[in-house]
Design brief:
about 325 residues; alpha/beta; nine-stranded mixed beta sheet; about 20% strand; disordered N terminus
């Protein structure tokens, strides 16, 4: 089957109108996972190597402690991260993997060390009682790693591998309730939240801010921004940066995430991810949440009158959504 025929077949299979049962959804989900790997490269087997966490600095903050650490990424590398642990935990608390946007300081922005105050969500969640872990994506912050020299087909897949290890780290902590782990991110972190959550079902709830729209409406269908070495070069090499030839799109991902709770911040004036393209994805996934899983309240989208940003009212709505589905500390 050629690429275009395969894409047409997948579009038909993944259409919410044709998904009438959980068995239909499960088959569509497996095909989406397979086709994401056509673009990102194969997901490696889960590493059994020790996390070998090394702690370098602890700093007390109002309501939590921020710890600078590194953990083994599984490729003879060490991933730097900030761990934010709330004070006075009486029992294991919910936890959030907090993924940063495209910013030189990487993990430091969600952790509140610098960057934009509207993106200090790891710090804000820790103050609300969540254990928060903010790692660096390859070649941001303190983490320098050549994904391609290590055999990866994309930096995106190496990010997924590292984020899976980050979930391992959260699960290893006595302070964390392993059944209440979520993921949040803005922009780069917004789509990486969707990517890791698609492959790792231990993530029970998600917040994606300014993280995606349909490939067809991404800059008018020009996928150059998705095809450089920081993302997925095969989008150019194999698929000619043509949305019609791509073997997956974000509606497929949202359908694959069902019925887990997903909150989407999609500002009206986001120049990166045009808002009607976000709504196309939501419209495709909502029937699956609603009709197959009877869980329409688990898929939420807000449209603040803002640009590529995560303004305070939208963040508050996101945190309330997380508290609904993951709870709060005891």
């Amino acid at each position: 089957m050629d690429v275009l025929s395969r894409r047409c077949f997948l579009a038909a299979l993944g259409s919410a109108a044709l998904l009438r049962s959980r068995a239909d959804w499960a088959r569509a989900r497996e095909r989406t996972l397979a086709n994401m790997q056509l673009v990102m490269g194969d997901l490696p087997p889960k590493s059994k190597a020790p996390l070998d966490v090394m702690t370098f600095e602890k700093l007390a903050q109002p309501g939590f402690t921020r710890t600078y650490l590194t953990f083994a990424g599984g490729d003879d590398d060490r991933v730097p991260a900030f761990l934010l642990t709330p004070e006075n935990l009486r029992r294991p608390a919910p936890a959030m993997l907090c993924l940063h946007q495209t910013t030189r300081i990487g993990k430091g922005e969600p952790a509140g060390v610098g960057g934009l105050p509207n993106l200090h969500y790891a710090q804000e969640l820790a103050a609300r009682g969540y254990v928060a872990l903010a790692p660096d994506y390859p070649n941001f912050g303190d983490y320098f790693f050549d994904s391609y020299a290590h055999g990866y087909a994309s930096a995106t897949m190496k990010g997924i591998v590292n984020h899976r290890r980050a979930v391992d780290l959260l699960e290893s902590l006595a302070e964390v309730d392993r059944g209440r782990i979520g993921c949040i991110g803005h922009s780069l972190g917004g789509h990486n939240t969707l990517f890791i959550s698609t492959f790792d079902e231990r993530i029970r709830a998600m917040v994606s801010s300014c993280g995606f729209n349909s490939f067809k409406k991404y800059y008018g269908g020009n996928l150059t921004g998705w095809s450089h070495k920081g993302y997925m070069p095969r989008i150019a090499e194999r698929y000619g940066k043509d949305p019609a030839k791509m073997p997956f799109d974000f509606p497929d991902i949202l359908i694959a995430l069902a019925p887990r709770p997903l909150f989407i911040n999609a500002p009206l004036r986001d120049a990166n991810f045009e808002v009607s393209g976000v709504n196309d994805c939501v419209d495709a996934a909502l029937p699956v949440y609603k009709k197959i899983f009877h869980a329409a309240d688990r898929l939420a989208v807000v449209h603040p009158d803002a640009q590529h940003d995560f303004p305070p009212p939208a963040r508050e709505q996101a945190y309330q959504f997380l508290e609904k589905w993951l709870g709060r500390k005891a």
